[in-house]
Amino acid sequence: MSTLEIKDLHVSVTTEDGPKEILKGVTLTIGDGETHAIMGPNGSGKSTLAYSVAGHPKYQVTGGTVLLDGVDVLEMSVDERARAGLFLAMQYPVEVPGVSVTNFLRTAKTAIDGEAPKLRTWVKDVNKSLADLDLDPSFAQRSVNEGFSGGEKKRHEIAQLELLDPKIAILDETDSGLDIDALKVVSEGVNRYRAREGKGVLLITHYTRILRYIQPDRVHVFVAGRVAESGGPELADELEANGYERFLTATV
Amino acid sequence: MTVTDAARESVEASLEQGHLSFSHLNPPPSYDLADHPLPTGREEIWRFTPIKRLRGMLEGEPSATQLTWDSTLPDGVTLTQVSAEEARAAGELAPNDRPAALAAEHAAHTVLLDVPADLELDDEHPVVLRLHGESVDDLVYGRLVVRVGRHAKATIAIVHTGSARYVATTTVVVGDGAQVNVVSLQDWADDAVHLGRDAIRVGRDAHVRHTSVSFGGDVVRMHANVEYDAPGGAAELLGLYFADAGQHLEHRLFADHNQPRTKSNVLYKGALQGDKAHTVWIGNVLIRKIAEGIETYEENRNLVLTDGCHADSVPNLEIETGEIEGAGHASATARFDDEQLFYLRTRGISDKEAKRLVLHGFFQDLIRKIGVPSLEAKLTETVEDELAKNVFRGVETEQ
Ligand SMILES: Nc1ncnc2c1ncn2[C@@H]1O[C@H](COP(=O)(O)OP(=O)(O)OP(=O)(O)O)[C@@H](O)[C@H]1O
Ligand SMILES: [Mg+2]
Question: What is the architecture, at CATH level 2, of domain A4-251?
């Protein structure tokens, strides 16, 4: 079982003029095995939501709760959240010079499982998940994300998703910057993960094209720091046809 | 080729001032002690050094005490005692600071390490000189000349352990077309004081890589200079240091482009932690008027792990000709990158482990460049030990 419940989440960032509220009461629940898509204009706070759930220190939670299987996530440190089963595929994955992908993956897997993975199967698993995402085996020896193209970084995020096997995956614009072939490869990776028992996905995107490969159970329109409307997959089609106009005028 | 803005400014400034005859930052070499007077500490080349903590080492009291030497010499390589005259005849470079002048004056023995012409040693079998001191009460002068013949290929590691007050001069004469890799490891006990100068002369089309690694010691002040015998030589000067509470680790580089079409590439990386950990990096580059078509780049990066540490980082570029291929420098002193730590932690890696990984990566980048697989493995291990032992004492873990 894995459920992520976000209730009335308020989040601020510190600016020169004092705190600025970005999330203004976000409520949304990803039930067991569900995939939810969040769509919204630039600057509406989608990444803020993703980072806040992951625990980035830049964002101050001023109200609300986030529960993973009933346990308060906001009380946990960033790495505790990950070990509890949260995963964030970042919009802009970070380069870590001098740390090889293998070393990184092994360290992460060990941290999450609480024990080192069995060497023989692990090497095979790493090679397979790189290959599945169309990444050359040489990536294992390269420094984490350093010199990776935008698309390679995104594929590397999904390789990690499959290897680390969290309960809930938040994918922040994993589709942007991907060409059509890479989009398929990435979608297949996400779908393999989704096919496992009880995995939840929160998929943040600007484009409906990824939703043709990854069918969401629910779609949320995100505007000005809150969910403006929720619906089924048909809501994505409406957004595709009409844009955000209707929601913007409704809130401003 | 890139010329950074800083380099351009230096070019203009130097050209405006007219031609410089010699570098004011680098006093002319001389064996005469009178040319290297006892410093007051206000001199440009001494102002960063805690002279009081040198325990009188600059005064020049004679001493016949020696370090114990334990050497691994591949076939064909010889290590012999020679006279001062023979050392000079072998190409020793005259002292360019007081410690080097004192070492030349007082060393009980002068040692010549000879790698004959055309001898190609494989990377896996380096020449290793293990120098060990018994006590910081011992004042020791060391004088070594390394002569690598033309077209020879050799890796030479000099490892310092134990304790002493050690004043040393080393010359590395790199023959035409030779390829030499020198690694000097300062793995001293906590109380050692080491004032060293490694001077390198690069032959025509020769390549030398010099790596200085400093972990231990109370005060370590290493001077690495490179100059060229003929056009076409290339020098890579690498360094790695790790200063703990109270330690002073100073690395002074001087690349003297005295020949056309020569190259120098400097990369030093250091980490500091603990109260009054102090590191100094001085990167002097002189491009003489004759040195057209040269390329130089120097970079120093410091990672500050705790409050109370201090890293000085001073690149100096003096340029007497505008006819160069490229000149640039970069210097940065920073704390851990929060975004890197956050990324690692979203993968379940604890704060402490994330810091250890980032630091490992910071140094690994450099260790890979050393180009001696057996040494790289050992250095990685030493770095890991050092990290495990010291790094996270006093680094509080944040949420
Ligand atoms: N330090 C800050 N100071 C002021 N405003 C900030 C700060 N950090 C973030 N913001 C603002 O918060 C808002 C939400 O940003 P966020 O990155 O969450 O948007 P997003 O929906 O992910 O946008 P995009 O579609 O472009 O990725 C933006 O308007 C941004 O400018
Ligand atoms: Mg965003």
Answer: 3-Layer(aba) Sandwich (3.40)
